[in-house]
Write a structure and sequence with these properties.
This protein has two domains: about 325 residues, Aminopeptidase (3-Layer(aba) Sandwich); about 140 residues, Glucose Oxidase, domain 1 (3-Layer(bba) Sandwich). Helices cover about 35% and strands about 25% of the residues. It contains 15 helices and 16 strands. Helix 4 crosses helix 10 and helix 4 packs across helix 15. The structure holds 2-acetamido-2-deoxy-beta-D-glucopyranose (6 copies) and zinc ion (ZN). Keywords: Carboxypeptidase, Endoplasmic reticulum, Glycoprotein, Golgi apparatus, Hydrolase, Lysosome, Metal-binding, Metalloprotease, Protease, Secreted, Signal, Zinc, Zymogen.
């Protein structure tokens, strides 16, 4: 960086600082916040209890409990894919622990979930030279014939490129070497590669893993076959191998790959959503939900996705109970099952609890990492954001005061959010989340005790205050007037 650039950067930073100050002032003065002064005062009165929660988690006798309980669970069960015996044992364990630690109304609710089993699998580059390709079959993929599929491969960087070379795809393995833009934007290649390539007569697909960063690790995930095409085997390969295959093709080299997959889909299996509560002291029918999913992929340990989120939610109730804090409304922890196969547990739960829709005051979910927390991502009307900002200002000491919109990384609560129920997901320093996501690298080493202490302080405080204040979280403008 030269001096001139340096000065102009300094000026830019100064300018953006000034305009952010300006927008803060603007927000405070002109923002449509209609929280009545009594409610502002009431929220401020929770400072003592919030400090107690923070203190107990950061330096007191609850320090590292989220991390420790998660580590015990992860070390005991490892990964927990839907349909597995292991997931059901993990659910039993959580039910037992919930009772043991004094949670209330502990129970599970049954739901049929997909049962896909990977089996042994391999992808071997035969030509132009022999090399084992690190791969993972994608969830719901069919297997190959017992002897595998050996075929010439063709590499494309996009669905558009596939269309352009459609005439040359018949009988081949198509490799998708798409560029990673963002998870939301790029994941369509994992989801639809097989169907798009099958439409052109391909015999299998290999997809560059959906990740911004790779140490030659494949990342699995669910994929969807369209109804109208042949189901062909589909797997992910690493970014490194995908790039190499592209270079080989660009040099005019003929690529031959042998793919073997034993993947099988069995009939749906009974699983369970896991529920534990602290019953509300005054309005038990009104509910604040905290949640995360207990199932995971069948590689790595699912410590991050979503062990961290599930335990953040569950342990928030455990520590509130331990601290003797019973709010006016009911706090309900829900540990979803079969999120990875398409929010299967959540869909069933939302349907079964339609009768309570009016009583869901606020719904929270953590499923995008539990790195250093920064605040919340919120979906709802602006008045609710004002309430959350007032609550988060009580957490200034731990730097978790930001409210962004909308809530995301919270797929299991989206059904409720889209029905107008206000909710939030955890805002955290999740820049590296997709480095580990759905891969063998999703282990306990991703989780950090101090980040979990802070996240639990934030999560438990918000859940408690929202469940205890006089006013419901607003769904309609002017509700406070
Ligand atoms: C909590 O974890 C931190 C970081 O690993 C460690 O320094 C501290 O001793 C732990 N405290 C307890 C009570 O386990
Ligand atoms: C749960 O508790 C029951 C009854 O105490 C016990 O039989 C069972 O083995 C426990 N299950 C797990 C997974 O801890
Ligand atoms: C995978 O293959 C090994 C032998 O190569 C065998 O022992 C094992 O049972 C197979 N696993 C599955 C899930 O079929
Ligand atoms: C198959 O269905 C998808 C939508 O599910 C559609 O976009 C596609 O054009 C269809 N392909 C054929 C060959 O009919
Ligand atoms: C709603 O339905 C569920 C499940 O069917 C039941 O457990 C619950 O008690 C009902 N709640 C209300 C408020 O009626
Ligand atoms: C909050 O941020 C301040 C300023 O960067 C820092 O000094 C402090 O240690 C942070 N507190 C926590 C709990 O992370
Ligand atoms: Zn997840």
């Amino acid at each position: 960086m030269n001096l001139l650039q340096n000065i102009s950067v300094t000026l830019m930073l100064l300018f953006s600082y000034l305009s952010s100050l300006n927008s803060t002032i603007f927000n405070n003065e002109v923002n449509q916040c209609t929280i009545p002064p009594e409610l502002q005062k009431e929220i401020a009165s929770y400072k003592t209890v919030v400090n107690r929660i923070i203190h107990s988690l950061l330096v007191g006798d609850l320090q590292n409990t989220t991390y420790r309980r998660l580590a015990e669970f992860i070390d005991k069960f490892g990964n927990r894919i839907a349909g597995s015996e292991n997931l059901e044992n993990a659910i039993d364990y959580m039910l037992n622990k919930s009772v043991e630690l004094g949670l209330e109304n502990v129970h599970s609710e049954e739901v049929y979930v997909p049962h896909w089993v990977r089996g042994n699998e391999s992808a071997v580059l035969i030509q132009p030279r022999y090399q084992n390709l690190n791969m993972l079959g994608l969830g719901s993929s069919v297997g190959t014939p017992v002897d595998g599929i050996t075929a010439e491969a063709v590499v494309v960087d996009s669905f558009e490129e596939l269309e352009n070379i459609a005439a040359h795809v018949y009988g081949k393995i198509v490799i998708f070497n798409e560029r990673y833009i963002s998870y939301g934007e790029t994941v369509k290649y994992r989801q639809f590669a097989a169907s798009k390539a099958a439409e052109q007569g391909a015999v299998a697909t290999l997809v560059r893993s959906i990740t911004p960063f790779s140490l030659n690790t494949p990342h699995t995930g669910w994929q969807d076959y369209s109804d109208n095409v042949t189901k062909i085997p589909t797997a992910c390969i690493t970014a490194e191998d995908s790039h190499m295959l592209r270079r080989m093709q660009d040099r005019g080299e003929r690529i031959i790959i042998k793919l073997k997959m034993e993947a099988q889909t069995f009939s749906p299996k009974l699983s369970r959503n896991t529920i534990a509560e602290i019953k509300g002291g005054e309005k038990p029918e009104k509910v604040v939900v905290v949640s995360g999913h207990l199932d995971s992929w069948d590689v790595g340990e699912g410590a991050m996705d979503d062990g961290g989120g599930a335990f953040l939610s569950w342990n928030s109730l455990v520590i509130l109970k331990y601290l003797g804090l019973r709010p006016k409304r009911t706090l309900r922890a829900i540990l979803w099952t079969a999120e990875e196969e398409g929010l299967v547990g959540a869909q069933a739960y939302v349907k079964a609890h339609k009768n309570e829709t009016q009583n869901f005051n606020f719904v929270m979910e953590s499923d995008e990492g539990t790195f250093t927390p920064l605040g919340l991502k919120y979906t709802g009307i602006p008045d609710g954001k004002c309430v959350l900002e007032a609550i988060l200002s009580l957490l200034k000491d731990i730097n978790t005061t930001t409210v962004e919109e909308p809530a995301d990384g919270g797929p299991d609560i989206t059904f409720w959010l889209s029905e107008g129920i206000p909710g939030a997901s955890l805002l955290n320093r999740a820049e590296s989340y997709f480095w580990y996501h759905h891969s063998a690298a999703d282990t306990m080493d991703v989780e950090d005790p101090e980040a979990l202490n802070l996240a639990t302080a934030l999560w438990a405080s918000v859940a408690y205050v929202v469940a205890d204040i006089t006013a419901d979280m607003p769904r309609k403008p002017g509700q406070f007037l």
